[in-house]
Specification:
The chain has 2 helices and 11 strands, in the order αβαββββββββββ. The chain is mainly beta. The two termini are about 15 Å apart.
Length: about 210
């Protein structure tokens, strides 16, 4: 591939990434990436949508769901100050969808591998830890989370630590009335998100390419 062709492909990938992250209200700080790519990664003027809880009052996040899912894979994922808010129904481009709603103050992600909308793949430099930090909280609308549970904020771990969490498969430890906010950690985790809002992503040595590469 000629240099100018490769440059055009990278520009299109960066724009696709920027557009998707803007729709998910997730600004990015890229360490080790070309300066030109960071100028696109901002969000403004995004519309609102409704997320209606099955047993909860109307919820109104501050941004619209994008045109495709976010699939996060990581060696380790730590949700600091996390709260599970139950199962809610959100409007997606494909129609209403039941999802899990979480919030967290801070997320630590080791060996981040993020596929965005099925078309763009963003990977961090190996053996680095990326962060997603909210001014208040980061809000996650999760379709499915699978991995190995390694910490429940000091609470006893279940006998079976390999977990797959969906709106139709909720483990007993997920909600804890006595400690609604806690730090939860997983290893070898895959998280499929319908949407993610309210955070700033910091990533070192990013590798940006088409999702099939």
């Amino acid at each position: 591939m000629r240099g100018d062709d490769l440059s055009g492909v990278l520009d299109r990938l960066r724009w696709s990434l920027a557009r998707t992250l803007a729709l998910t209200a997730l600004p990015v700080a890229l360490f080790g990436a070309p300066t030109a790519s960071t100028a696109l990664l901002s969000s403004s003027g995004v519309p609102t949508f409704d997320a209606v809880g099955t047993d909860a009052p109307r919820d109104r996040p501050s941004a619209a769901l994008g045109n495709g899912p976010l699939v996060l894979r990581a060696d380790k994922l730590i949700l600091h100050g996390s709260v599970f808010h139950g199962v809610v129904t959100v409007q997606t481009p494909a129609g209403p969808e039941r999802v899990l709603k979480f919030t967290a103050r801070l997320m630590h992600i080791t060996d981040l591998d993020l596929t965005i909308g099925g078309g763009v793949r963003l990977r961090a430099r190996p053996a680095t830890t990326s962060t997603i930090r909210g001014k208040d909280v980061v809000t996650l609308y999760t379709e499915r989370l699978s991995g190995s549970l390694t910490s429940l904020g000091g609470a006893p771990l279940p006998a079976v630590r390999s977990v797959t969490i969906t709106p139709d498969a909720l483990p007993q430890w997920l909600s804890h009335p006595g400690a609604p906010m806690r730090t939860v950690a997983f290893e070898d985790v895959t998280v499929s998100q319908a949407g993610q809002f309210g955070g700033d992503l910091t990533i070192s040595g990013p590798d940006l390419r088409a999702a099939d590469r």
